[in-house]
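Work through this:
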Amino acid sequence: MSMQLSPEQNSKEDYFKNHNKVKTFPWSLYHKPLEDSLIAAASLVSSGSNTPLQVLVIGCGMLHELSDLPKDIEMTAVDIDQRAVELVASIGDDRIVKTRVMKPEESLSVLEQQYDFIYSKEVIEHMPDPLSHLKQCHAQLKPGGRLWVSTPNYGEPWLPSVEYTVLEVIARLNGFTRFGMHISKFSKRKLKQTLEQAGFADATSQAVSLRLALVGSGTKNL
């Protein structure tokens, strides 16, 4: 998985608590378009399947999007935060068939399964080697399977201007700093190129959420 938190996150910020903000204004301005894009991608893959869709969620958090995901899926949810995994396991939704706490250095190959659809929301920016991680995602997809990812958009001035002013003030008031939080920064072009380098066909990247975020996707060739 090769995921790690920056020193600032480890020492000052509790990301688990931040998941509570996803549905509330103004944070919903950022996250709602991401969830809409994710649900559309999952529904598109699901519509072409006659069997339950095998889904892997990387960095599951609190699974806010669960209620809107297709009904005929079998989900594996993983996270490096044990609290998130325990919360998801306690939901009691029959679609969640497996949960796992992943060590940052673990490869996705430990899951010993391939999937029709893999998604990862706001995760790759925290990884020191996102290309290696995306290659792991590619390996865990079934032929014809699809990946969906989202990440902050550093290719335009809007995100840095907000992040290092208003959001930094809010962070300081809550006892942490956003500087150094995202160790891998993506532009629209870089995200598409990285997906292609990882082996994905039909790689796409587009700006959403007032152009503050990016969503990328790609498929594994048959």
DSSP finds eight helices and seven strands in the chain. The two ends are 24 Å apart (CA to CA).
